[in-house]
Predict the 3D structure of the following.
Amino acid sequence: MRTIGHYIDGKNTDVAGQRLASVFDPSTGVESAKVALAPASVVDLAVKAAAQAFPAWADTPPLVRARVMFCFKALLEENMDKLAEAITREHGKTFEDAKGEVTRGLEVVEFACGIPHLLRGEYTDQVGRGVDAFSARHPVGVCAGITPFNFPAMVPMWMFPVAIACGNTFVLKPSEKDPGASLLLAELLAEAGLPAGVFNVVQGDKEAVDTLLAHPDVSAVSFVGSTPIGEYVYRTATAHGKRAQSLCGAKNHMVVMPDADLDATINALMGAAYGAAGERCMAVSVVVAVGGVGDALVERLLPKVKNLKIGAGMDAHNEMGPLVTREHLAKVTGYVDTGVKEGAKLLVDGRGFKPKGLEGGFFIGGCLFDHVTPDMTIYREEIFGPVLAIVRVDTLEEALQLVNDHEYGNGAAIFTRNGDAARTFNYRAKAGMIGINVPIPVPVAYHSFGGWKRSVFGDRNVYGVDGVGFYTKLKTTTARWPTGLASGAEFVMPTTGN
């Protein structure tokens, strides 16, 4: 059985004697590999390797660092199918969806290729008589990334390309559920010319996470995952004096107005709710049907959910694959059970779905609930599966109230032809990312990704200009040369007139 280990200081490491966990092919339910779970001593080795590599990498000219990113970009393009297949084999999402994930990560690498422009400082001469001022951005040091199972390539690439291009070194702790992609990324970075120690990977569980959060040589921590864990990561990291960002859970609403193009809306909704089996932090999990549009929406949606093509992710005919683990399948199934028990109307029941020949896989069919109310568990909590809830309201004002009252504020969308409704929704919806006739409004790489409310902890978004701000610290210098020195001691606060 293949064992997936760690990548430290430019090489794969020995995992003898370490705890091991199972990695599965979700389509078959068969164990496909073992993954080593790093003890604190191994995490310490990775952090020390990153700390040792930091001074030389920080002193490397930004343009030279950017050229490594250019080479890495080319290698990602050449190896996209290989990386996507590794994701599909361990996560379960369809191969084309996995390629889309790699592409969205690649866009951040492309952004990082232009980092020199964003690292330029500012200069003002004569801020006072004979006094000049200038600023520069410096890397923060060793950065850690703690990333989730649902995007084993894209989310790490939201972090490390920006961090590394800014002159930092990096330790990645990917999900132990689908760890294979992390080592492929490490190999491609090394092939691109990245020096040993600049990028390291430690597989592991809570012990590895806690070690990173408390390690004195780690300066910054980025996290993507559930809200309870994200809050813990943020509080623990900041308590140890680190800058931290945690991007967390979601309950993304799509508001459908009576004037919406229903055919376009249904097509958008199917992909947004059931793509990747709903295992996306930006998946649409609640539809808010406004002003009587609910019946027509259900009539068109029902047959499409019932006829979803579900099976192995490597089969190009399938639209949806399995869930990532048996435990997660049980959790999602439990949410459907609870929805029925609490009185929601289950229009499509995907429980017990088993594709022929894949009876051992972690499958559930698409589920659709109608007449869901805000007090129900399936409305309040993030399910992270192919379960869509329809809530019916009379007005846009009620729809906005639902969006704004929910504890999560990652993304929200409205489908309408009415510009006034769209503008009102955009301005008043309390969410970090808004879609207008766009179901999954994940920003492009030169903007930044981040939610509001309990969907985020920390005041910096990931990637884009906000990412540069997170991975650098600003130094401002005020300079006066001997010809401008005052002749005697000055005891008053200096001003621009001095």
User: Anything to note?
Assistant: The chain has two domains: 3-248+455-477, 252-436.
